């Protein structure tokens, strides 16, 4: 197996996971606390807009990359001399999968409900729409911030171990 390919996939897994962890963490520590201070109309309108624009190629490459590149990195490190690397990559994959599940089961359905509420200028009870969305979305975003950040940490450590293994083995 090409050492360059193995290394490139490990780096791609780490970078994509780091990007996703950074995005979700930014929402946890800055975006949602900031939006928590605006009125109901501003909150609903802004979150609807964010939910529309985030579905772009750059986000999808990073988000999909967390699983695809981690799975590929695991497959490329199945050699017995790479067992320590493999264990950390598998842990990262599991944490990224948890992030995906949270996103699919909680955050995306809430985003869809918020969008289905309609134009904020025509919503009768903006406070109720916000109340059904905000606390649950924020809570689970914090959880996926933690899972994706932990996955990133696992991949960083896997890269350290990978460097040790390849330095020792010359591959």
TrEMBL record:
Segments passing through the bilayer: 7-35, 55-78, 85-106, 142-162
InterPro entries xref list: Anthrone_oxy
A Pfam family the protein falls into: Anthrone_oxy
Transmembrane in keyword set: yes
Keyword entries, A-Z: Membrane, Transmembrane, Transmembrane helix
Superkingdom field: Bacteria
Record's keyword annotation contains Membrane: yes
The protein, known as: Uncharacterized membrane protein
Source species of the chain: Streptoalloteichus hindustanus
